[in-house]
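Extended Data, record NADAR domain-containing protein
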Amino acid sequence: MAAPSGPRNPVYLTEEASGPYDHWYPLTAVSPEVVWYRGKKYPSAEHLFQAMKFENIDPALSEAIRIAPTPSDARELANANEHPGVLQADFYTGSGQGYPPAVLNMRQAMYLKFAQYEGIKWRLEQTGSADIYLLSSDGYWGKRPAPIGNQDQNWFGRLLMELRSTLKAQEDGKAWTIGVTRR
């Protein structure tokens, strides 16, 4: 089967609903599609990701994050509660074996979003084999302008490229699922 058609140049995302990259905005965690997880409705994948950090540590905080008015409110509430010793020490760095827990949580949140929204999954497929970058001031999840951003990790773009391959392989009947359910 031929490779999917799509952009040959890199695909750039921002967390802005309008602007030069707004076509790709639905691929971000902050776009306003409801994501269902364990029988609960989350206003965005960002809400789910941030709430997942605390679901086994502080369920009341996790719930407050889930119902936060906006994705940035959910992020701010979670970040304000990330004190030393609250999250596992390697939450963002990993233990050297596989992905860091933060990336695994975001991967699960985004997988659920794509599984629940065929149109957004189709949009991800339209990126073809292009590299994907989240343009962000956060060098962990995204890419900052060069030369500062030359060492950035772009975890969000990397996980979207992996999910694109996984979802394509699942459609072709050649892949396993990551063990999440739609609701």
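Summary. The beta strands are 11-13, 35-37, 40-42, 132-134.
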